[in-house]
Amino acid sequence: MLRESYGDGKWECPRILEELDRTDELYFDSVSQIRMNSWSQGRIALTGDAAFCVSLLAGQGSALAMISAYVLAGELCRTGGRYEEAFLKYEGFLRDYIHIKQQGAERFATAFAPRTRLGLLLRNLVIRTLAIPGLARLAVGREITDALQLPDYRWPSLMN
């Protein structure tokens, strides 16, 4: 399959394909995104990539993991540990926000992993162009930035 796709490739493709012929081990993966109807079941709740990995292409995994952990902990504290209620509030607060992030990652996936030579050329040109200071924010600002207003939870053990 790789030879079929990259056999006529330039640059390092011939050398890489030769090396692949000499190895017994190869890790091959695809870019995918899983969307779950619920991030919790029973007493277990998922956060971060385990719940809603927007994409390996988005570069937001750490930030979203911190946000989701903060909101889940805050809702557990706010509800006095009533996890069923806390889980509903946690998902209710983040679900639409995460959905928008997932849609953004889906829109940009083909740009980051193009299937054609022309797509590669365009992607590389866009990446070089977006390196110009301020241009990235103008071009894709809404996709990479946002203004999620996090709740101001009152943490009892920290308030004394």
Number of helices: 8
**What fold name stands as the CATH topology of one domain?**
FAD/NAD(P)-binding domain
Largest sheet: 2 strands, antiparallel
Globally, the shape reads elongated
- Average pLDDT score: 85
**Element-by-element helix/strand order:** HHEEHHHHHH
Instruction: List how many beta strands DSSP finds.
Output: 2
Spatial separation of the terminal alpha carbons? 63 Å
Rg of Cα set: 21 Å
Beta-strand level of the residues, as a percent range?
A: under 5%
Question: Percentage of helical residues?
Answer: 55-70%
Identify the CATH homologous superfamily of one domain. FAD/NAD(P)-binding domain
Q: Any idea of the CATH class of one domain?
A: Alpha Beta
Describe this structure in words.
This is FAD binding domain-containing protein. It comes from Mesorhizobium tianshanense. This protein has 160 residues and is mainly alpha-helical. It has a domain at 31-115: FAD/NAD(P)-binding domain (3-Layer(bba) Sandwich), CATH 3.50.50.60. The protein has helices at 2-6, 13-21, 48-52, 61-78, 83-112, 117-130, 135-144, 156-159, and strands at residues 40-41, 44-45. It has a two-stranded antiparallel ribbon with strand order 1-2. A hairpin with a 2-residue loop joins β1 (40-41) and β2.
